[in-house]
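step=encode ok
step=design start
structure_in=
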């Protein structure tokens, strides 16, 4: 994903956040990258008092000052003289919220000039394994990328080291919960078929096989394993990957990808058999309004995953 901004502040320490607030007030679009106050929370000794006093606040407009924070919290000035480290960290968090600054929690791994010759930079955030290793959970939206065994192994080991989790939303499909539950007792076969109108296959490997504009009947574009399907059709095969990861894995999950001029939407069909029984579902998803390759349900499943992070009843 690429985000454009006028100003990128690298590092969410007190001065970085102060700069971002000041820039926003001046009408400059600004993003902050980094973990909020990580240097202060991880490296400044507990019980330390600041060298600087209460007047050394972060707001160039003089509104969100340390004294304003103390007043809002009902803390007497005497208790903040000298200023304890923990109270300062709380002040900076209050300041961040008051100014609506939400840093992107990744580290910036690279900063390069763009190739277009304009005075612009391209900043790349660190990869998932570094984030997982630091104990931060990752919600993977392009699940198809996990068909690469080396990437999957790297992320798995990073999550293990960081005691964090790789979260996989079901995406455009239903029944992932049932397949994963059936796996516990043993699955014998899992088949997944994706049937979408020709327009949904534009820009994919299908264009080398058929003339999508001239298709008049249902045409099988691919038949094989989920692993190969995810690699050949990365923009279309996230569901194949989710089904594989929930069930029999990338090599044993059978996949069929079909272009169908009569498809009433993006149709996903799964058949699974195992010790616990047999599952057959068909889901007719509506395509996303902005991207015909993806189903509207895929975005909703991400919303569900995020809502579940804070839900009392997780379902
Ligand atoms: C012992 C000690 C006492 C101090 N006492 C005071 C004091 O009393 N008053 C005072 O004003 N100052 C004090 N300082 C100085 C203090 O560190 C700075 O004032 C303040 O932290 C500067 O804020 P900052 O936002 O510029 O940097 P920092 O707080 O250092 O934050 C920089 C952040 O950038 C992050 N970062 C680095 N590289 C990347 C990357 N590639 N991508 C994303 N994020 C990145 C880091 O992880 C870090 O969280 C003290 C320093 C020390 C060591």
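sequence_out=
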């Amino acid at each position: 994903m690429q985000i454009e901004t006028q100003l990128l502040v690298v590092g969410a320490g007190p001065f970085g956040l102060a700069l971002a607030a000041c820039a926003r007030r001046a009408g400059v679009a600004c993003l902050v990258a980094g973990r909020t106050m990580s240097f202060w929370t991880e490296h400044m000794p507990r019980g330390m008092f600041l060298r600087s006093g209460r007047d050394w606040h972060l707001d160039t407009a003089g509104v969100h000052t340390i004294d304003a924070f103390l007043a809002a919290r009902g803390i007497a000035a005497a208790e903040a003289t000298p200023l304890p480290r923990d109270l300062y960290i709380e002040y900076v968090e209050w300041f961040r919220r008051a100014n609506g600054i939400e840093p992107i929690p990744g580290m910036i791994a690279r900063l390069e000039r763009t190739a277009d010759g304009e005075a612009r930079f391209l900043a790349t955030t660190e990869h998932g394994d570094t984030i997982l290793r630091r104990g931060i959970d990752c919600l993977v939206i392009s699940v198809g990328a996990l068909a690469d065994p080396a990437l999957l192994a790297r992320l798995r080991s990073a999550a293990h080291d960081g005691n964090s989790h790789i979260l996989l939303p079901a995406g455009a499909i239903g029944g992932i919960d049932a397949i994963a539950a059936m796996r516990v007792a043993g699955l014998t076969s899992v088949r997944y078929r994706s049937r979408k109108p020709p327009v949904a296959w534009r820009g994919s490997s299908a264009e080398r096989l058929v003339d999508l504009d001239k298709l008049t009947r249902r045409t099988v574009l691919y038949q094989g394993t989920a692993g190969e399907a995810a690699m050949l059709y990365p923009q279309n095969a996230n569901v194949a990957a989710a089904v594989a990861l929930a069930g029999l894995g990338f090599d044993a999950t059978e996949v069929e990808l079909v272009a169908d001029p009569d498809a009433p939407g993006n149709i996903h069909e799964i058949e699974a058999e195992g010790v616990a029984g047999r599952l057959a579902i068909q889901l007719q998803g509506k395509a996303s309004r902005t991207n015909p390759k993806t189903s509207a349900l895929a975005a909703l499943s991400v919303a569900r995953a995020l809502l579940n992070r804070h839900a009392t009843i997780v379902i």
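step=design ok
step=annotate ok -> Residues 10-11, 13-16, 33-34, 38-40, 44, 50-52, 56, 107-108 surround flavin-adenine dinucleotide (CB under 6 Å).
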